[in-house]
Structure formats: C-alpha cells, structure tokens
C-alpha cells in the first residue's frame, strides 16, 4: 500500500469509530448521566490498572538494575582479586629468578 492509502484507511477507521461511538451513545439503554458515570468509572478503572502495571514494571526494572549492578560489582571485585593474585605470582617468580641468578653466580664462583 502507498502512503496515501494508509492515511485514507486510518481516516476511514477514525470516522467509523466516531460514528459508532455516537450511535452507541444515542441508542444506549441507559440515560446519558448513567452512561457518562459508567464511562468515567471504566476510564478510572483502566487508569488505575495501567498505573498499577506501570508500577510493577518500574519495580521489575529497578530489580533488574540492582541485580546488574551487583553482578558488575562482583566482576570488579573478581578482577581486583585476580590482579592481586597475578601481582603475587609475579613477585614469587621474580624472587625465584633472583634466587636462581644468585645460585648460578655462587656456582660459577666456586
């Protein structure tokens, strides 16, 4: 479909919804005041449901963010521990190399 076809279709749907809503209100079995009260109550209920769902989603996002931050912190701590271990091993290797050089010099002198 071309762009103009889509806009025509959307316009037709919007007009159809408007006409349908108007006819529904015109031929409603309840009075206008009752219908307005019903619609207002339904809208309020939908708003409250949406607000509650949004709150639930916000809480879930916050939980995921907290878990992600905990994983990142654990990873940083692991990296620091690994770096310390590497530094310790490097120190031990340097001590072994120094001891080997001393032993070699002592053996060469004798």
Q: Can you tell me the overall shape?
A: rod-shaped
What is the count of DSSP helices, taking H or I runs of 4+ residues? 2
Largest sheet: none
The total beta strand count reads: 0
The residue fraction in helices comes out at over 70%
| Global Rg | 37 Å
Which spans have pLDDT < 50 for at least 5 consecutive residues? Answer: none
Element string (H = helix, E = strand): HH
The share of residues in extended strands comes to: under 5%
Give the helices and strands, then pairings.
Blueprint: H1 3-26, H2 32-109
Describe this structure in words.
By secondary structure, the protein is mainly α. It has a domain at about 50-110. Helices cover about 95% and strands about 0% of the residues. It has 2 helices and no strands. It has helices at about 5-25, 30-110. The longest helix has about 80 residues, at about 30-110. The model has no long low-confidence stretch (mean pLDDT about 85).
